[in-house]
Amino acid sequence: MLDVIAIGELLIDFTPAGRSAGGNEQFECNPGGAPANVAAALSRLGSRTALISKVGEDQFGSILHRTLLSSGVDISEVSFTNEANTTLAFVHLDDQGDRTFSFFRKPGADTFLHSKDIPLSRIETCKTLHFGSLSMTHEPSRTATRTAVLKAKEAGVLLSFDPNIRFALWESKEEARQNIYWGMNYADILKISEEELSFITGTSDVEKGTLELQQQFEVALIVVTLAEKGCYYRVADHDGYVPGFKVKTIDTTGAGDAFLGCLLYKILENRSSLHDLTSQQMSNMLTFANAGGALVTTRKGALGSMPTIEEINQIIESESNTQFNADRFRPGFHFSPPTSWANDPNGLVYYEGSYHLFYQYHPYSNKWGPMHWGHAISEDLIHWQHAPIALFPDEHGAIFSGCCVVDWNNSSGLFKDSHGLVAIFTHADIHPETGQPRQRQSLAYSSDKGQTWQKYNGNPVLAENDLIDFRDPKVFWHAHSKRWIMAIVAGDHVRFYASDNLREWSLTGKFGREEGSHDGVWECPDLFQLSVDDTGRSKWVLIISIGDNPNCPEGSRTQYFIGEFDGKTFINDNPSDHILWLDYGRDNYAGVTWSDIPEQDGRRVIIGWMSNWKYANETPTGSWRGAMTLPRTLSLTSKDGSVVLTQMPVREIEQLRKESMVWNGITVTPASPFLQKMNEDLLEIEADIDIRSGEEVHIVLKSSGLSELVIGYDPVQQWLFIDRSKSGVTDFHPTFENKHGARLVSNGGKIKLQIWLDRNAVEVYADHGLVTLTDQIFPDAPMDRVEVSTPSGQVVLDSLQIHTLKSIHIPDAVSEQK
Asked: For the purposes of burial, counting CB atoms within 10 Å of the CB of 368, is it exposed (0-12), middle (13-18) or buried (19 or more)?
């Protein structure tokens, strides 16, 4: 039994082959014809195929006969005729490899296929019959094609149809349209291009157009090819996009035929009814087909360029396409490194009009390694420019986390009667005698606004020989005591030191051995003072990040304390077992604040590393790994008798807004969810939700593929949550796929959610930042759909705003300083 019989045109493509010495365009002869290409693609993959067609009794007909035979296609139904010559097509390619055609087919031998030439008994016993529209441009091949299709339909054979419109071969566009309608009436599988769909349906919206065709013609599976973007499919009651592959295109001739051959191969291999195919099965099949189609574009010609299974699997698994897919996760408005590994933000300082962001950086790998300080500069906290690496490892070890301050009065004596930047950081190495890790504190300074850095000759300036974990200094000028204060962590507590000159330090106090969470080692402290609402009083905030503990599913995260600082140590306002979390998502760690933001600005701004030590080394981002949260303004507010932190993205983020849409008074029920498809995948969403009905509400961010991220609120449990179990790529670590959240009490039966969606992350702020969740995501395609739904009852959206956002472009540094 044959797997696939194809019926239709068989011709010679003359494709460009450069120019002669005299400057004349040259062409090379390549066997082709869409149905023949599909048969050859299937045969190359191992399927049993045959072609029904005619060629002329000429040299071109002989070439086609031999090529099909060598391709493994059964040619017993390919006959010769002396009534016309073999059809010829001259292919003209533009700079992108896209084609236009000139045909010599008036008539062509393939149009002389008669009904008597159709092997009806073979058709009724094959698994699939594939046909196109070009064998229906003229008689007698039109009737012959329809005879074959009707026999296949009668026998229950799977029917595959590709319109493959070439207007030059039709008497009129209307004649083409009517014959294509005829084909779709019988098709089980329809492969169609964007341009063909627009011609047939009058719409360029592939989702709307395919739905119209599905409803009108009851085609079981419709696939729209989208060139290098991939494809879109609609089958049964579900649909989606599957991304394509990045290749160097030479000639697109035959790419769609290879795609279809690969798809038919996978459908036959699956053996399931088309109506039973799941989204995951469709994604796998179409990834294979996209790869096959992409491969053909890298070669000249069509019929002889069809790929093997090994070649297809190789391109799917290739590093270049892994990187192409990984680049989809490069954030649009969150800071990320130019390449390689990045983690904790360091040295955050504002100086003479610029915000400086230093960060832990390993420039030679996408995994954690010998730490440097990467560097970026911004004038608005949103748009960044990569600067040369600031600090490199030296004889004292790698450069761990730390801070920067402006030494306005030259207390350090490093600036020759001027002021400049001083970096205080941890040098990390191995003790030469004990073989144990050693962490000591050192200085570097810059007199040219952070462009170049000089290590202090007296490094290290602070060491505690009995402490193995002793790192991440955060320094600030304490006006009341008129000296510098350092907060630094030592495994299970924070230590405070004081200095008059940034070079000589003395211990003043300790805090935390019995306070807060000790699920992991303490890291990355910060200490600062904030006003409480508009009361005129203020409190001190101590931020402490805690590292990963294998026994804790949350992994690394950040806590904070509210209290007082007396110039020597911190005093906690809350009971020792009272824990306050900065962020209830899985991906906000090591956050610290900018120093020296001018008093007239009045803000305390924090930024964190947007990852988690549970899986930070394994996220699927290719040659780069690591990103930062949005910069956030911190505030203190009184809530239920306690003082707590709130945080919201800095106001500068609003400059990224492009278009805004607003809805009011929307009632959502299980039968009528709110759904909006966007043309962008960088979004800001504001939702005021009435949940007095007591029903759960979901804001679902969906990709055009299989990915979805659920942001939900359960009024009964008073729980705000994120469910990223279906958010895309999740299998790189067992703890990534999860559902997590935080307690949120509604305000009079209403909640306000503000959401920032990037290509690799989502940040959720509830009730003006009282509760915050930050999560990484790795969707299979851009998340460009917003759905608001409820599983029961009804909820009311008092208002909903969706803003599309511009992407930031981060220029590279001009040079590297070493």
From this structure: middle
Is beta strand 506-511 parallel, antiparallel or unpaired with respect to 522-531?
unpaired
Q: What distances in angstroms separate CA 549 from CA 344, 491, 615, one per listed residue?
A: 18, 13, 12
User: What pLDDT score does 93 carry?
Assistant: 67
Look at residue 316 in the predicted model and tell me its pLDDT: 84
34-45 vs 255-270: helix axis angle to the nearest 10? 50
**Among this protein's residues, is 380 annotated catalytic?**
no
Burial class (CB in 10 A: 0-12, 13-18, 19+), 90: middle
- Residue 105: the pLDDT is 87
Q: Tell whether the torsion through CA atoms of 290, 294, 296 and 297 is positive or negative.
A: positive
Q: Rounded to the nearest 5 degrees, what angle is found at the Cα of 547, between the Cα atoms of 653 and 502?
A: 75
> Counting beta carbons within 10 angstroms of the beta carbon of residue 228, is it exposed (0 to 12), middle (13 to 18) or buried (19 or more)?
middle
Give me the pLDDT at residue 700, please: 98
Torsions phi, psi for 107 (to 5 deg) = -90, 180
Cis peptide bond upstream of 460, omega within 30: yes
Q: Say what the pLDDT of residue 324 is.
A: 60
Residue 150 DSSP label: H
Beta bridge partners of 51: 6
pLDDT digits (tens, 9 = 90+) for 531-554: 999 888 999 999 999 999 999 999
Give the side-chain half-sphere CA count within 13 A for 729: 19
Which residues of the chain fall short of a pLDDT of 70?
Answer: 93-99, 301, 319-326, 812-818
Catalytic residue, chosen from 344, 526, 548, 775, is 344
Phi-psi category of 777—alpha, beta or left, where left has phi over 0 and alpha has psi -120 to 50? beta
Longest CA pairwise span in the chain (Å): 105
Cis peptide before 338 (omega within 30 of 0): no
Token pair of 460 as six digits = 């290290």
Instruction: Determine the pLDDT at residue 239.
Output: 84
Q: What are phi and psi of 141, to 5 degrees?
A: -65, -25
In the DSSP assignment, the letter for residue 769 is: T
